[in-house]
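Hello K.,

You asked for the raw outputs rather than the summary table, so here they are, unedited. I folded two proteins back to back in the same session to keep the settings identical. This is the first:
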Amino acid sequence: MQKRKLGKSGLEVSAIGLGCMGLSFAYGPAVDKQRGLSLIRAAVERGVTFFDTAEAYGPFTNEELVGEALAPFRDQVVIATKFGFKNGDSAAGLDSRPERIREVAEASLKRLRTDRIDLFYQRRVDPSVPIEEVAGTIKDLIREGKVKYFGLSEAGVQTIRRAHAVQPVAALQSEYSLWWREPEKEVLPTLDELGIGFVPFSPLHPQQGKAEAARTQRARQRSCRHASRGRAGGGRLAVRRALVARRRRPASGRRSVRQRRPKLHAADEHRQHRAGYRPQFLGAPKSFERGCRRRGSFLPSIAKLAAAYVTSRRC
């Protein structure tokens, strides 16, 4: 796994990090605890050293999961967490008062089973609290050894500059993908100027994870329904199968299901093309392009654009 330093801060992380939010929050039901622990530890074994969580994910349960999973590897990894909401509830509103920041820091340290927070983000800018007060509070926590680096999330250019003047900002976290390139206009040039690292989230589009979670949930529900039908109506199912097995060939002039299938598939491809069909997941550019060719789509050009763009952004 390649390593990168976030700006001029000196904080070194793996080139690919693991955002742990979806294990407990936002993308469908929380995963089983043992599966979550296994997944996080498997990421460590594959060279990932950068893990992202927050008190609002759950709330609180995601930090507990990450803390337990990474306890055996604590000195080998970088843990980022966040503050900025009332009572850790993202639906309750913003709260970045100095006393609240300190309260979150103390609670997060306990849940993460650690003596320091490697990267402490302000999750959202709180307009009711001057950013200078927020940066000053983090500066005090860094001096006390409870926090190592200060981060911002989805902050504007002027906010970044004002915070950086009080306490150097190590990283800005913001959405960035082929679908959302707004940071290129002002944010990225400002980060380059100030020597601040950039941590993009949702590189495959923010709806991708939700769509995958929804499909998984629907599949589970269908599986449960089928299983229950099999137990309750086993006799009816056996009769139905017997009738299907004894069914005669179609009358002359009609086509069997097998004979109709190619035409149906061709119609499906036509509808997908006319509707601007998009695959739900972008894999590696080569496999993506092969999949597009099978669908008769015009999307290989998008795959080539993605490959060229990723290559151009490497550093």
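The second followed immediately with the same parameters:
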Amino acid sequence: MKNTKFMKGMKDLLGNDDAVAVSVGFILMFGITVLVFATLTLSFYDLSRQSEKTAMRNTFEIMGQRVAIEMTVADSMVNYINSFGGTINSIEYEFTLPASIATNTYSINFTNSTNDIVLESDNGARVAIPFNISNNISEIEFYSGAEIYKFGYNKNYGNINVEER
């Protein structure tokens, strides 16, 4: 009889998992919650970085096209004056660019070899905007910070310079 009582008590003890279920359930729920929260946080961070790059690329395209148009205007003024036999002592054409975009600095590179204006940020966004002018442009690279720039015509070399103001 003692043996059957012992066996019944052991069966009850082994069959009772209330305390284990609550503890294990809490640990599992906490672990799953932490994993879901970490996954969501990382995905939102990556999504925000990607949207920042896309916004910078779009802004670079708009800025680069505007600079290309303004460069074409300066080139057209030089060609117009030269076509009528005029003498150009100095032509300056100012344009503005923002000091930063989405709190990121950037560089603007004028290349004569590929006829591109290359805008590149420190977060990896990069855009090359083609331009077509008849005069050469002095190849130069600027880093954002100055907001006012100018195109100027150099009559000694017959090219267009870009300078910070």
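Residues 18-83 form the longest helix (66 residues).

Happy to rerun anything if the numbers look odd on your end.

Regards,
P.
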